[in-house]
Structure formats: C-alpha cells, structure tokens
Amino acid sequence: MNPEENIARLRRIPRFKLTFIQPFAVALVSAIFIVLITTMGLIDMRRSERMLIGFIEDQGRRMIGVVEKLTEENLKNMIMASQKTAGSASLSLKEPILSPDALLTGKIIAMGREIDEHWKKEHISGSYISQFARENNLWLVAVLNARGDVIFQSRLVADKLSADAGEGKKIKRSAAELIKGLNTLNRQKKIGFIAMSRKDKSGTIVLALDRESMRYWGIRVSVERAIEKLGEGQGLLYLSIKDKKGNTLGGIGDISEEGAIDVLPTKGVFPGVIRFTSRKTSRGESSVQEIVSPFYIGKEAAGVVLLGIERGNTDRILSENRKNVYMFLAFVITITMLSLWLLYHNQNRHLARVVEMTRQLEKAERLSSLGMLAAGVAHEIRNPLNAISMASQRLKREFSPYELEKKREFDAIAMVIRDEIRRLNAIIEEFITFSKSRRLELRENAVQDVLQKIVNLVSAEALEKGVNIRTDWQDDPVVIPMDMDKLQQALLNFVKNAVESISGSGDVTLAIRKEEKNLVKIVITDTGCGLTSEEMERIFNPEYTTKEKGLGLGLSLAHEIIRGHGGEILVKSQKGKGTVFEIFLPVERLTDKVATT
User: Distance (Å, rounded) from C-alpha 90 to C-alpha 175?
Assistant: First the structure.
C-alpha cells in the first residue's frame, strides 16, 4: 500500500468523525424544531387572517343585504304608486314633481332638462338624440318645435304602430300624430311617456319608456335611494351595482375603471356558479377587501355588486401577528445558532491541536522520506558534478580562444558553468536539510547583478519556447543586503515558473522599482495561463504543485528565502491573462550580520 494513501486516509477520517457528526446531529434536530415552529406560526397567521377576512366579508354581506331589502321596498312602493297614477304626463321643465312615483319622474325630468341645455347651446342633432336614448335606456326621445312639428326623434313611432295595425303606414311628423301614437301605445300598456314643454314655449321634449326601460329605471331609482339611506361609513370605500347588461344601477365612492366590476367574473355570478367572491387589492395608499356578489331583487339575480371595505385595522392586526411570529422565530434561530457555534467552537478548540499534530506528522514523514532519498542520491550526483567542474576548468585553461571578443564570451560561459555547478552542490545540501533551519549570510550586492545572471541562465531555454525575456531597470545599481546565492535561487524559481506557464509565444518581464519606506520591489510579469483564486492560496504550500513531475518545493523554498530576507510577496493573477509576482525587499539589514529563515 502506498504510504501517501495512508496519510491521506488518516487525515480524512478524524476530520469527518470528530468535526461534523455531532454539530450535524444538533443542527438537524434544531432545523426540525425551527421548521415545526415556523409551520405552527404560519398556520396561526393564516387562521387569524381567515377569521378577520371572514369578519369583513360578513360585514359586506350585511351591507349588500340592507341595500337589497331597501331596493325591494322602494320598488314595491313605486309599483303601487304607478298603478294609481299611470300613463302619460305633460309637465313644464320648471314645475315641481308631485306625482307618487316622484323619484322616477324626477329622473326623467332631469334627463329632459339635460336635453334642453344642449338645445339652448344648439348642440342638438338627430345623432345626439339617438345616442342619448341608447345611453339612458329610453324607448323614445323626441324633440318638437313651437309649431308642433317633430324635429328629431330616436325612433319612428309609426313603425311600432304599423307592426301592430298592419304595414303601409306613413311616418308621422306632427306633434298631434306623435302624441296620438304614444297614447295608443300607452292605453295598450306597452309604454309610458312624459311630454315636457320648454319655459319659453319654443318647443316640447318627449321621453317614453317601454316595459324594459321602465323596469331598468325603476330598479335604478330604487337602488340609488337605497344606497342614499345606507350612506357611507363602517369602513365602506366604494359600492357599485350593475345589471346583467353592464348598465350602472347606482354607486358611491371613487371606483377606477381598471379595478372595478368590469374585470371581475360577472358572467359566472348571475347563473349562480360564483355566488360570492372576495379579494385583497389596493386603491392608492389604502388596502381594500373587494367583494363581488349577486344582487337579488326578490329571488331573481338582477345585477352584481362590487363593494370595497377598508382593511386598515385588519392589516395592522395581521402585521402585528406576523411581527410577533417572526421575532419569536428569530429568537429561536439565534439561540440555536449560538448553541451550534458554542458546540463547534468548543469541540474544534480541542480538535485543532489534533489536526495540527497530524499535519506535523505528515510533514515530518514526507521530509524524512525526502531526506532519506536525498541522502541516497547525493553521492551519485556529486561525482558527475565534480567531473563537470574539473572539465570546465580544463576547458577554460587549455581551450580558451585567442581572439579577445570570443575569449570574453568563452570566459563568461565557463564562469556560468562553474557558478551553477557550485550552486547545484549547495542546492543538494539544502534539499537534504530542508526541514532544518537555514541561516542567510547577508552581504551588500546589486539586485541588477542577480537578475542579469538569471536572464543569462534562462534566455536560451526561453527562446527555444518562443518566450521573450524583457528587462526594465536603470543603470544605477540598487544595492541591498542579501544572500546572493539563495536570493538568486528564489528569483530563478519565480522566473522559471513564469516561462513554463506560457504555452507558445509570450513575454516575461523583470523590473526593479524603488518603493517608499526603504523597500525595493522586484516585479516578475508573465503573459501565461494565470492562476485561479484557489491556486493562489496554495502555491506556496510545500505539498502543492501543478506539474506532473514536480515536488512542490520550488515556490515554497523561494517563499522561505524571501521571508528570511525580511521581504514580502504579493501575487496578482487572472485566469488566462497572466500573473504578476511583486517581491518587496528591505534596503537595510534586519540584523547586523545574519538573518534566519
């Protein structure tokens, strides 16, 4: 069995069992308790709402019942009065109404006065008379001049007579013939009419009602009278009654067109499919309970009622009820969450030590394995390194070219080989002693020299990949206390990672900036694949690597070296758009001679 698998398994099991089982059980019980309380609270709120709305609906039913009863009484009184004094009447538009059915007669005379006002303004026409008759549900509207000739009439009275007496009758144009025809229909109890003379005797207005229109106006007058007796108050905002055809029978209050009876299911109300409907709505700033109900005269549904009652007190009571339930629920949730937090905190306070010890054991095992591996490999690596070092010295001594320019280039390459062999020996030693403390030997050196060495080392490899290494610094040397080899090792790791992050062509830029507060900033920018936020949090962990054959030690060692110099690292990256490493190093020494990582 692989030792790595054992370590991973030992880390997962104690975390699951110790950390989550007990809080999860408490959370589950608490959640059930909270759901139970919430459900009971919602049931209580709905029960209270149904009860209060039921009270409003009962109040609306009582108001509708009062209007129905008063309408029925008014209608009976009107029928009884009309049986005593029936038929036609000839009145002045200014004389008082004295007939027993004064309410209906008053309405008809008011319509006559409205026609008279239009006549005075010379706005009267045949189309106006016909439209007025239709809108007011009148069987006939006729206007006669002072000579008794019919000027306008909404229908031909001759047509009605000819339908009863036979065809071939001519249209009657004189007042005598019109009144005669109306009297004939009146005696047959088919119509009733009123002829009203103008004050200046300049003409006559005749209004006639058949049985259907007389019933409509009788009900309308009775409803209006009943609504007047009912009055406002008791939270009533508006009330409207319409017949089956949609004609308004009466109403009080302000009813907007869009929210009134037209949008409600009146077709289902009349046959009794929907006997009573109630809904919550709003009118301006007021909350309203709107009620729709059939309007009965006797046992017949004569229309539909739209009634709005203010919900002010009801909404306040429901709001208080909801507020109390929510406050109690919030209190219970707070106590539950506090209990869970205390349990979790108390348990994890002890568990943190166990987890830390487990991590230390894992790290110790891994470092021990690396140390044992390094100890076995170190001897085999050192022998070929010594041979390469001796060969490079002999090349420099015996094969150096005579031309001055080539000799300088040859010496520089030989120096790079010798320095890198020496640095490889140091890295092997550091790899073996990775888990031990390392001391830095700080000396004053120029940052440009370190970066230029790194450029010389990686340029050839970068060019093969199509990556350009760019530099951005001034000629004036920026001198800081550093362990040159270790700082070079750290920065080289950053640069190599930048080059390897680029697939295809791209750029890696090395820059030096002088910062305030005695700091020097080294900026390494690449145009590579970038990092996610999750990867940025883990790149300096020793056990984390994105390379298939990597050990994950490069950036971890670099991080320790920078910290040993008293520096800080700031990483900026966006997936697919590259990464920027900003390394801040102090200009002054942290101690007189050495610093420890």
Answer: 13
Segment 541-597, tens digit of pLDDT:
766 666 554 445 677 778 888 888 889 999 998 888 889 999 999 988 755 444 444
Residue type for position 343: L
Output the pLDDT for position 425.
73
DSSP class per residue in 136-198: TT-SEEEEEETTSBEEEESS-HHHHHHHHH-S-PPPP-BHHHHHHHHHHHHHTTSEEEEEEE-
The Cα 450–Cα 455 span in angstroms is 9
Closest CA to 222 of 374, 104, 51: 104
d(CA 198, CA 145): 10
Cβ neighbors of 146 (< 8 A, separation 6 or more) are 201, 202, 203
From residue 478, alpha-carbon distances to 11, 518, 588 in Å are: 47, 12, 12
Cβ atoms of 308 and 236 within 8 Å: the answer is yes
Q: What is the DSSP letter of 98?
A: -
Residue partners of 550: CB distance under 8 A and separation at least 6: none
Phi first, then psi, for residue 75 (nearest 5°) are -65, -40
Instruction: With H, G, I as helix, E, B as strand and everything else as coil, classify residue 490.
Output: helix
Residue 543 in tokens: 């056990």
Q: Which CATH superfamily is domain 231-310 in?
A: PAS domain (3.30.450.20)
- What is the C-alpha radius of gyration for the chain, rounded to an integer number of angstroms? 52
525 three-state secondary structure: strand
- Token pair of 57, please? 């609906």
Q: Which amino acid is at 267?
A: K
Residue with tokens 């390469």: 388
* Confidence bin at 1 (pLDDT 50/70/90): very low
User: Which residues are CB-neighbours of 233 under 8 A, at least 6 positions away?
Assistant: none
Indicate the residue type of 73.
Answer: E
Cβ atoms of 450 and 473 within 8 Å: the answer is no
List the domain boundaries for the chain: 3-76+318-371, 85-216, 231-310, 437-596
- What pTM was estimated for this model as a whole? 0.46
Count Cβ atoms below 10 Å from residue 334 Cβ, excluding itself: 10
> What does DSSP say about strands 191-197 and 89-92: parallel, antiparallel, or unpaired?
parallel
Domain covering 437-596, topology: Heat Shock Protein 90 (3.30.565)
Q: Which of 163-167, 270-274, 293-297, 501-505 has the lowest mean pLDDT?
A: 163-167
Q: How far apart are CA 27 and CA 340, in angstroms?
A: 7
φ, ψ at 11 (rounded to 5°): -75, -35
Residue 412's CB: how many other CB atoms inside 10 A? 11
CA dist 183 → 87, 189, 206, 284, 401 (Å): 8, 9, 12, 53, 144
Q: Do residues 304 and 251 make contact, with C-beta atoms less than 8 angstroms apart?
A: no
Could you give the strand order of the β-sheet that contains 140-145, starting from the edge strand earlier in sequence? Answer: 89-92, 191-197, 203-210, 140-145, 150-153
**Secondary structure in 3-state letters for 28-47:** HHHHHHHHHHHHHHHHHHHH
Token duo for residue 329: 């629920």
CB 169 within 8 A of CB 158: yes
